[in-house]
Specification:
The chain is mainly alpha-helical. The chain has five helices and no strands. α4 crosses α5. The longest helix has 20 residues. It is globular and about 45 Å long. The relative contact order is 0.13.
């Protein structure tokens, strides 16, 4: 395998996250000022669960993008992580069958009409 899976899985977060992300939509939609206030707050420490989730997400990304065959991850990541990633991969592939030419993997996009940042 020429792709260094462990190096990619353990790479530091690039910090490219939206201030108005989907996971916090309930908060910022109810209180738009929370975005500006949150930008002033010190960064929260990362939990071991967040690190594990990021690793699993990156594993699924590698499989979906064709950088890695699932069996190449055997012995490199916990079996439960690979199993979970494969459930996600299979779901995404099934959805993509009904929407040809729409599978974008880690595609950065902007909604400038909603937020100029």
């Amino acid at each position: 395998m020429t792709f260094d899976l462990l190096k990619y899985l353990d790479a530091p977060d690039d910090g490219k996250h939206s201030e108005i992300g989907a996971s916090s939509a309930t908060r910022w939609m109810e209180c738009p000022g929370s975005v500006a206030l949150g930008a002033k707050a010190p960064p929260r420490p990362t939990s071991k669960y967040a690190v594990e989730g990021t690793r699993a997400h990156r594993l699924a990304e590698c499989i979906l993008s064709g950088k890695l065959e699932p069996w190449d991850a055997l012995g490199l990541v916990p079996e439960e992580m690979l199993d979970g990633a494969m459930v996600y991969v299979e779901h995404v592939l099934k959805l993509s069958e009904t929407r040809p030419n729409t599978l974008w993997i880690e595609k950065e996009f902007h909604l400038k009409h909603l937020d100029e940042r």
